[in-house]
Structure formats: C-alpha cells, structure tokens
Amino acid sequence: MLRPTARVGAVAVALAVGAGVAVAHPGHGEETFNALVFSKTEGFRHDSIPAGIEAIETLGAENGFDVTATEDAAVFTDEELAQYEVVIWLSTTGDVLNDDQQAAFERYIAGGGGYAGVHAAADTEYDWPWYGELVGGYFAGHPEPQQATVTVEDPDHPSTATLPAEFERHDEWYNYAPNPRESAHVLATLDEGSYSGGTMGEDHPISWCQDVEAGRAWYTGMGHTQESYAEPEFLAHLLGGIQTAAGAVEADCSGDAGGGEGEPGGGEQPLAEDFEKVTLDDNTSNPMELAVAEDGRVFYIDRKGDVKVIGTDGAASTAGTVPVYTGQEFGLLGLALDPDFADNGWLYLYYSPAADEPVDRVSRFTVEGDSLDLASEQVVLTVDTQRDECCHAGGALEFDTQGNLYIATGDNTNPFASDGYAPIDEQEGRAAWDAQRTSANSNTLNGKVLRITPQDDGSYTVPDGNLFAEGTENTRPEIYAMGFRNPFRIGIDPTTDGLYVADYGPDAGNVDPNRGPDGRVEWNIVNEPGFYGWPYCVGDNTPYNDYDFATGTSGDTFDCSAPVNDSPNNTGVAELPPAIPAELWMGKSTTGSPEIGGSGAPMTSGAYQFDAELDSDRKWPEEFDGSVVFADWNDSRLFQVTLDEGRDQVSSVTRIFEEMSFNRPHALQFGPDGALYVIEWGSGFGGDNADSGVYRVDYVQGNRSPVARITADRTSGPAPLEVAFDSEGSHDPDGSDVTFSWDLDGDGTEDATGPTASHTYTDPGKYTARLTVTDADGRTAVSNLEITSGNTAPEVTVNGPVDGGFFSFGDTIAYDVTVTDPEDGEIDCQNVVVQPALGHDEHSHGYEQHRGCSGTFPLPGDEGHIGANIFGTVTVTYTDQGNGDAPPLTTTEVLVLQPKHREAEHFDATGRLESAGGGGDPGVSVEDTGDSAGGGKNIGHIDNGDWWAWEPTNLTNIDEVGLRAATNQLGATVEVRTGNPDTGPTVATIEMESTGDWQVYQDFTGALGGDSLTDSGPLYFVKTSGELNVNWVEFIGQGVTEP
Is 120 in the same domain as 234? Predict the structure, then answer.
C-alpha cells in the first residue's frame, strides 16, 4: 500500500484521484484508443496478472479506451498489431516471442506504436537485445517484498504528476542492469537506504520512459502484488503510463529531466585514465601485508615467513626469513614499521612461531640496510591460540600518530558446524566451536583490536582509554575493541587517529528466523573502545538467536543493547557493553550498502591525507582527502568511501577504477608519497600464486610509466647454470619505443641491453635478475626474477587424488605423492606437507595438515554452506634441503576436488558454440528457482548451443551424470563434452521429457563413456535441442572417495 511521507502529498493525491481513478489531462479530453494487454509467461508467473488485467479493463472503461487481453503470441503480426496504439506487457517472463513475432513488434514500435511495461516485463526476452533497449534495463535480482521509499523525479509526467514527491510503498523491488538512466528519462527512483536488498546504489530508477524511433516506451517496476491493482495511487500511475505510451496524452520523455545525482562523492572527480597501476614486484607467492618507509622502500611479508624489501631502484630482495607455522590460516600475517623507523630500523611482525606451542607473537626486529637481523628479535606480546581447529587468525598491525600499536586478532574459532550462523556451541569438548570463549570474552586477546604502546626495551605499556582499565578483574587491559570475527584488515586515519576495521563474516546464505541473519561482513569506524557485536549481533546490530547445539533448539534473539556472555567457556565478565553497529555491512542475500551490494571479503586502507606541500609526482589529488579505499577481495572491486567532516560517518561510497584490473586486492596502504600501494593475492586458493604481486597506484595526469615483464627458461639448477631471459610483454602504454637494461647478477651494474639476454651463474647461490624498461620520456619500470644456482627446485607429482576428481563432503580421500630432487636424493616423506581445505567462492579455509608421501584425509563439509559455491582443495608442498650456498627451494601443487552435487548457478564459465546462431548474449542466465526441492537459484534462458562448464574436472570412477531440470516443451537434450565445447568428445547425452512447467523439476540422467573420462580439464554441458531450466547437477559414482 502506498503511504505518503508528507501530508501535503496525501492531500494532493486525494484531490487529484478522488474516489475513482479517471484523470483528465488538459488539452486532450476523452481520447479513444485501443490497448492490447499481453501477459504470456515462460518463466515465473505472478499471481497478480488476473488482477492486473481486470484493473486495466476497468481503467479503459472509465477513461475511454478499449482493452483486449491475450497470452497468444500469434497476435504479434503487422496486421494484428496495427489495431492497437499501445501494447501493455503485464509481468511477462522468459522468451515469449519467436523471431518473426519479434520482428513484427520492432516494426510496430518503429512505425509509431507504444509499449508499456509493468514489473516483470523487465524479466523477459534476455536474448533479444532490441527489447532490452526498449525496456531500458533488464531485471537483475530482487529481495523479498518490503516497504521502501519512492522519490518522484519528474512531477510533470502524467504517470507521476498525481503522486507525492516522496512516498512509501510495499512491493517487490527489482534491481536493473544496465542502469536505465543511461538511455531513458527517469520518472521515479528508490531510496535504497529505506529497504534492504538494493544493489544499484544512490541512483536506482523504478519508473522511466523514452522515445524509440517514432514510438514511445514507458515502464514501471511496481505492480508485483495483487493489492497494487486496487490502490488508486498505483492505478493513476499505471493509467498515465498507458495513456502516454499510447500517444493519447503528451509527455516529455526526451533526455533525462531527472538529471541524476552524478558522482556520489560530489564535485568533479578525477578521471580514471589519470591513474596508473605500476608493478613493483610480480615475482611473489603468498604476499600478505606491506609497509612503506619514508625513504621509499617497500617492505612486504610472505605468509610462509619471508620478509621482502623493494628498493627505490626497483630491486627486490629477501631481508630475512622467520620460521612460521602455516597450518589452518596461520603464518606470517602482520607487518608495521616503527614510527621512528628511519632512525632505529625497528620492524614489527605478527606471526605464528614454528614451534609446537599454540601462540601468535608480536615481535620487534631490527633492519640493517636491507637485511633483517633475526637475532634482534624482541617478543613484545604473545597471543594464546588453539591450532587443532581452523579458523580466523587476523594479524594486521597499524601504528597511530601517538606511537600506539593496534593489533587485530581473529576469533580462532571453527565456523564449520554452525550452519553459517553464530558459532556458540557450549557443549563439553566443543570450546573451539564457541566464539564466546574468544570474541565475547574480556579475558582473552582473540577476536579483538588491541592497543599497546611499545617501549624501547621491547616491552609495552597500555595507553589510557582502552576498553578495560588495568586491574579490572577478568579483563585484559590491552583490549581496545572486542566482538570481531576476523578483522583481517585495519587502517588508521592520520588526522583523527580513528581506526577502520574490515571484519569478515559467516557464510549463511539466507536469513533464518530461528537462527539469525544471513552471512554479513562489516566495515567499522572504530573511533572509540567498545563491543562490536560478534558472535551475538552483526551488521546493523541484527541479533542471532541463542541456540542449543546439543538439542538443535533455537532460543530468543540476543539483546544487542545489553549482551550477556554466560557461556561455560567464558573466563571474562558476563555483562558486556552495548553492541556498536557497523558503519557499512554487506550480506549474502541482503545489504546495508547498496553501492557495494554483496561482499564476502572486505579489505580497507587507512584514510588518505592530502598534503599540498608534498613534492610527489604520484600523490593522489585533493578530491580524495579524508577518503578510505574499500576493496572486495572476492570480485576485485575498489570503492572510495567518503566520510563526513567529523570522520565518524560515511557520506558516500563510489566505485573507482572499474577499468583497472586487480586480482584479489589483499592489502592497501597509502604511502608517504601519497600513492596507494596494493598487494594482490592472485587467482589460486591456497597461495603460491604466480599472478600475485605488489603494485602502486599513481595519480599521473600525463605520461604513464612503461610496463616491465621478465621471463626465463629456467630459474634453478646445478651450477654452472645458464639462463636465457626474455622481456616479452614489456611495453609503453603511451605507445613510445622502450629500451632495456639487464642487471643479471644483482650487483647493480648493467650486464646486457636489448629485448633478450642470457647469463651463466658460475657460483652457487641465489641471485636477483633485474630488467629495467625506459620509455621515450625517461620514465622507468622494473621487473625482478630470483635465480638459484647450485640447487634444483624439487618436482612434486600428485598421483592421487586426480585434479578435478569428485567426492562428497564427509568422505575420506586417499593421497599419494612422489617427490624427486636431484640434490636431496632420497626424500624424507615427513617433509611432504598435504593441506586439505574447504574451497568457498574465491578463497579456502584450511583443515589440519598431514605429512607423508601417502595417507588419507577427511574433507568435512559445513551445513552453513548448503547451496553455496563450495568444493575441496588440496595443497601439496615440499621444501628441499638446499645445497651449500644455494638456499632451499619449495615446490607446491594445488588440486581442486569437485563435489558430486553441483548447484548449476555456480558454473565457472558459460558461452555459446561457435557454430550456433541465435541473438542476445551467449550463455545461460541465473534466476530464482521455484523448485519445491529448494536450491535457491537455477539457470535458464538457455538457447541452442549455449553451454555452462566447470574446470577442472576428472570423471574417473563416475558412472552417470544427472540434471535436476524443468521444461514446459516436448523435451530437451544436453550433451556433456570434455575439453572443448565445440570439438570435445561427447561423454554423455541427457534426454529430458516435458515436466509440464518451467518451474516443475524432475531428475534426468545419462550414462558416461569414452576415453576422455580420466582427463583433467574443463567439462561442458551443451544444450543441443529444446528448452529447459537446470537447478543442479549430480555426478553419480565412487569418484576419488576411498572405497
């Protein structure tokens, strides 16, 4: 029901509409025209369609136009359409017209006909681009129906003239792609802050119009409910749209009178092309954190223990290696430079010692030149942990301007048996599954942000103003803020010393009234000590339910205003401070930050501080002063978060650098030069990623730096070692010629010029080969590559399980590994480390490590990931013994194991056969499913020749493949092909018969056969005939599971 938010609006509606819905428009009087209501559906069918037809017929009778209603697409001919001034597409869905009917409708509009689209008309004809342009935007998902605020942008258009300037209404609110404002004249918009589930940000059109050739188009996203068609206000809106689309009433739909809000940050923004991404080191494996010294050196750490330094000349080297434990999510995790680093050379690390004691440490080391003095270690702080169960180690470090060190720690709690909701298992022996023992425990250092002041002697003091005063019983004075799950990244505001905390959330896909909210991540402004909610409240202080894990019984929701920790695993105070809500939060099915939408992996920088006096040719412009860069690790998006004057509230969130490529941004730091430094984790799940790297984003406004790329035919081997180098891929993005300079032995002198080079390393040892590329304007770029002479990297062969093999969660899987190393000779199998993990979207959660050349491991699942994109990963690592002056080398192999039950919407790729015709975008679409068996989403709009695929797969010991499918036609056929969708062999054919409806599903199977079943590679599902929707895929057989 529409509810005006201003009394004057309500009066205006009452005066304009009165008791009926007939509205006279000046200068036109009683125009007569013919309207065709078309309501055919080939997808979801709205139960409001009959009410809509009846309402439009009544509008016609009361306002002098004739109405014909049909679901027969045969009416779409030139002769039939010529009888109507307007065709009303009433909540149509799917592919409703054939090619001839589409062509007729295109001619109808071009000749002066009218189109009026209502609600699901935007969920129609995805493979007909002309229709998408006519509507103005396609349906791109929706939350549950709810109340929202609508703002009228054009009060002069007949369809919005009688509506209040702003009003509230209950409806099903569609998101659209692309934004209709790009082509249409917007009439009304949604306030995404007034409801949850919007994903379009500050500019969310909900009604619009446009002129199309000689014709007219009008659309409203409202009208989902049956009740809509009895509401006078909505009917007046609908009437104005029909009349103007018919041409019976004049309307200005040229351009965009609504204008839009422009960039949310306000003011003229710098252009994206004024920034460039500069490679600092792309010869990385597991880069975790970075810090930039005043002298321009960049320090970064590798999770496996290396501390690296990139010099001002671009040379990268290893300053030192700290022995670390890397099971679960532990390792070398945090890095910070002392505020007086230029004078004292002190560097702080947060790491997990290699010894068996389950602790993490904050230690101070001294850097001398570009070397880390391991003997200088001063253990500043020890954090007790448990290493029996995964997950959440945190580890980020940041200094404020007063010399205080902030330390972020994770909840050190297993999340995999909590259905994706709050892990609060209070059963005996289940403490590792209870975050109340850590995050909500005032007497531990886990799940917190700590604040201490390091002293010159390696000790620390606690500054005034932390959450608990020293001496308070059952508390730790180091705690500044508590109630975090995995505050993986933190950043400082150098103006206010405020802290920004990006906290990872759980994985529940949906809200459960008996358990709590969907999985939500947070971005917090932590400018005061306090309790930030976990595991009782999350996001905007949405509470979880208390839950008895022994009986599976849900209790009342927690009180966020007065949380009480009564867990038997709590050693701290019971009564906690009121929970502080997050400033930004993003969920799996809801969002409090529509500009970002969903996010599973938040990252943050500190606040940028513009310095007009700073002499830097790369510093960011003043428009970013006080802003923070937020990044989503999963999908590599970056956002500018603009704050208010007090730096305690978000003013706007704006997507930035859409055209710039990032590969899982892992850490973000503004340097003293005013540029943004970025670590990219790369595309692999467990690390050791060849496409990881350390980069800098400069503001240049002119000539850009060249790009340097270095490759070699070998990077290790016995001495003397001859290596051939190549600069392929190096170039100047501005198009000028480049020159090459090679320092191949790391002594700082030029050894060769030209695009290729070679060198013989006579003496054993580790060397850094450096390529410098210079453009015509003298700008340079550097690329480094480490070469080891005198030691050969080991060769690791995983004999089993096969890469891409199939399993079920909970299975036990056997592994067998062969390692060869010419220098080590006989292999000590205890040095072979096997790390199984739960893969989830773009990341993985490690389980317990196993050692040995053969053995078994379990792959448990997580009930909270039901319907999620989950799979298994196995990382196998071997580090050799080195050889004299040649250091040890490590080789890692990573396998992906596929679950036997695969939700279809989680395909890795989709497309269309080269030989296939058809219009529209190639590949499948994802939509909400109506399957009574659940599943959440299905894929649909599958044209002949369209395919979807997963990679890697290996069908060893799989006998059949099945589809959970629906079709309203005579049937459909899907062929399963390996290797290539066009030319790969067909290993199964699945024939589907009609299920009677597009959302009535049945199970269909096809037997597997052929020589390529044991190959690891992509697997394609190609639709060759008919029409269908697919909910999930089943792989039937033993797979890689141990018999």
Answer: yes
Give the containing element (helix H, strand E) for 50: helix 49-63
Helix (H, G, I), strand (E, B) or coil at 804: coil
- Give the separation between CA 633 and CA 360, rounded to whole angstroms: 25
Which of 620, 648, 643, 537 minimizes the C-alpha distance to 270? 620
- CA 744 to CA 723: how far, in whole Å? 10
Q: Are residues 383 and 455 in the same domain?
A: yes
The Cα 875–Cα 889 span in angstroms is: 16
Burial of 432 (0-12, 13-18, 19+ CB in 10 A): buried
Q: How far is CA 582 from the centre of its chain?
A: 19
Answer yes or no: pTM beyond 0.85: no
Q: Which residues contact 15 (CB under 8 A, 6 or more apart)?
A: none
| SS3 state at 319 | strand
Check residue 707 and report its DSSP letter: B
Beta-bridged to residue 988, according to DSSP, are: 976
Three-state secondary structure along 206-250?
A: EEEEEEECCEEEEEECCCCCHHHHHCHHHHHHHHHHHHHHHCCCC
Task: Name the residue range of residue 802's domain.
Answer: 795-899
How many of the other CB atoms lie within 10 Å of CB of 545? 18
Q: Is the peptide bond before 952 cis (omega within 30 degrees of 0)?
A: yes
Give the rounded distance of the alpha carbon of 228 from its chain centre.
35
Q: Mean pLDDT in each 10-residue stretch from start to end of the chain (1043 residues)?
A: 30 28 31 90 93 97 96 96 97 94 96 96 93 93 91 95 94 92 92 87 93 95 96 96 95 60 39 86 94 98 96 92 92 98 98 94 97 98 95 96 98 91 96 97 98 98 97 98 97 97 90 93 96 97 97 97 98 98 91 83 96 95 96 93 92 89 96 98 82 94 86 97 97 92 94 97 95 93 94 97 95 96 95 89 79 93 64 93 94 94 94 80 86 89 93 97 93 96 97 94 97 94 95 97 87
Do 783 and 807 share a domain, yes or no? no
- Same-domain check for residues 179 and 319: no
Judging by DSSP bridges, how do beta strands 752-753 and 780-789 pair with one another? unpaired
The full 3-state SS of 178-216, as one line of letters, equals CCHHHCCEEEEEEEHHHCCCCCCCCCCEEEEEEEECCEE
- The tokens of 101 are what? 């009917």
By C-alpha distance, which of 108, 138, 142, 95 is closest to 36?
108
Tally of domains within the chain:
6
Give every CB contact of residue 9 below 8 A, 6+ residues apart in sequence: 163, 164, 165, 166, 167
Type and span of the H or E element at 109: helix 99-110
Neighbours of 754 (CB within 10 A): 10
